Amino acid sequence: MQFDWELTGKIVWCLCLVAWALIRWVPNRRSRKVKIAATSRTLSERFSMTVSWLGLGGVPAVWVFTGFPAAFDHAANPILVVLGLIIFAISLRLFRLTHKALGAMWSHSLDLRENHKLVTSGIYEKVRHPMYSAFWLWALAQPFLLANWIAGFSGIVGFGILYFLRVGQEEAMMEQRFGEDYRVYRTRTKRVVPGIY
User: Fold this and answer.
1) Distance, CA of 193 to CA of 159 (rounded, Å)
2) Domain at 77, CATH number
């Protein structure tokens, strides 16, 4: 009997999504207790959130649970599945560190909470947007775990659209709120990859 690496990749992907939801559970509850002072939930923001969700969750879930679109399946590879697991595990660790550093300041959208503080400690000493770093790693892990070209690469496309539509808006919002403090912080950190970008 041959080991089913395609099924293994699907199971790992599902377990990583469960882990992600558990990591988000408590911070999400805490942040909802702090009122939103300013928000930028534009049509572009809603569009990018939807596309990102489809790429990282919706499209892969359809393939994982139904096999559609099977025409784009390819052979699963044990080395790729293990690499996907390692990359996703690093992503989950970054999610945890980001939530820990942000505390109640966390939001899934472009929001500033009441008495919002500029967080520059913890993982934020290394990069300005570690949550985006974590999502990029999730998107990168997906094609290693899922043996389907569409389901695998949908995360890179979906999250890529959100990232490039949102990151500039977010930084402008932070600069408007925190002024020179944010400008100084921006000069000494990179966006998502320490020391590179």
Assistant:
1) 16
2) 1.20.120.1630
